[in-house]
Amino acid sequence: MSNTSEETGDTVLLTGATGYVGGRLLPLLEARGGRVRCLARSPVKLESTVGERTEVVAGDVLDRESLDRGLAGVGTAYYLVHLMASSARFEEQDRVAAGNFAAAARNAGVRRIVYLGGLGDESDPKLSPHLRSRHEVGEIIRDSGVETIEFRAGMVIGEGSLSYQLMKSLTERLPVMICPRWLATPTQPIAVDDVLAYLLAALDRPAGESRVFEIGAADVATYGEMIREYARLRGLRRLLISVPLLTPYLSSLWLGLVTPATAEVGRHLVEGLRNPTVVRETSAREAFPVEPMTIRDALERVLEQESATR
Fold first, then answer.
1. Pairing label, strands 221-222, 186-187
2. Is 197 a member of any domain?
3. Domain containing residue 69: CATH number
4. Would residue 289 count as lying in a domain?
5. Which of 43, 79, 189, 221: disulfide with 115, CB 3.0–4.6 Å?
6. What is the pLDDT of residue 88?
7. What is the rounded distance in angstroms from the CA atom of residue 40 to the CA atom of residue 60?
8. Number of structural domains the chain divides into
9. Range of the domain at 128
10. How confident is the model over 2-18, as pLDDT tens digits?
11. Shortest CA distance to 101 belongs to which of 60, 135, 133?
């Protein structure tokens, strides 16, 4: 692992390298051959996973002064930070973190920030706090004046994705499910490989104005249909019984009992399930050379990967 990097403005900075998407993006960035730097609160957690030429710098998005060294000489910065799992006050902390990072990036002369946010109609007065916060973070970063490419995605289908794990655990552990109304909500999830393809393609996009791109699978389904498709692919027989009175709060407590997720994180995720998360603006398909797979193909791929690692 390198301890220094030339400040040429060509360095790519990755935040969230210990997270689900960031951990998978890191080796792909390293394979491109350019300078890569990771910003982490605990650099020791990355020392055994980064390549020899990758630099790891200590920094905390909640500490504005700690960000200057990490952003020095950076051309493109990936902002893959989400504090929902670490704080009940995640909205406030995500707001502060985004403001700190955006200001530091502007002062450092960063040319582009790539941010992964969430789908959902921001004009919906009933949009969940989780999704509203994702949109707010994107707005804060764009308002910095640094060119920003914001990708908005729904559930990421892939081994280790928390939202996917919720669905998987629910389907595998409960032969009969008493289901709330949100199982009829339309959603457009996306395979993790397609998310990574979009994130990498953002590096090669010509300079321009800040843009928001909505990304998703090639098709749309309800959450109930996704559960049934997953069960079918796994050879499981599942009975879904819909009831109108199971509130999102009660649903999250229920999910917390049958999945690895905590009830607090589950509550925020379930609150988002009541909102349609579908691609309404399709410019990403023309702007990037990515052909997203179908929901079924995405589920088949992750099941094949899980089977290969058993």
1. antiparallel
2. yes
3. 3.40.50.720
4. yes
5. 79
6. 61
7. 7
8. 1
9. 11-156+188-218+277-293
10. 444 344 468 999 999 99
11. 60
